Amino acid sequence: MTRRMPRSGWVWLGIGAAYFFIPLAATLEFSLKEASGYGFSSYRQILEDPEFRDLLWVSFKLSVETIVLSVLIMVPGVYCVHLSYPRVRPVVEFLSVLPFVVPPIILVIGLLDFYNVDRAPRWFIENPWFLVPGYVVLSFPFMFRALDVSFRSIDVHTLTEASHSLGAGWTTTLLRVILPNIAAGALAGAFLTFALVMGEFTMAHIALFNTFPTYINYIGQTQANPAAALTIISFGLTWLALLGILLVGRRPGRGVAPVAGR
Asked: How many domains does the chain fold into?
């Protein structure tokens, strides 16, 4: 029997929704203001700005590169922890909290000190790719916990032993057996990483790179109505990423992937 939400629950839900949507509605209303009434001139001004498209593309590429590098590092790493070193998992969990404790400004200053001209090529230091290692660290908590939940929902030892008994090697086991079973967690971590990189300002600003968040900051300091329009656009991009997580989470669960030999 389904329990009905009490009236107090609806009241608190309404208060929470008002707290969230009233400022958003006010920002939307302000973004539509024009001298003669309301219109979409602020949105046209932003969308027709070449710098908006260029920096949005830069942040998009950085987010994709961060996702790829995070997946390449985290999937085998979390698989190894769950399969062979379960006692190390509490340590990894502790490490995954550190990006919440250490401010991004400390991280980027450390990267600037480590990746100097004596330790890294100039093309890397002067390219926005320089931010990717820092973004991987910032996304570590989200990617690890999303993958950890997926790995804990499957029997890693049984899948691995069955795969090896049928003649599959470690690479085949990881790509054709384990990965299909934790794909939902990997995609959830990828969407969270995408939202993180598309909104990260501190590291790009300190490292003197122009990205989409620095563009938002510049418009916010120089133009009022276009800044509100850009806020709504940025909010929409973030919610698209969250919608992707919801769609992934609502997909029916997959069974154990078939195991094939080489």
From this structure: 1
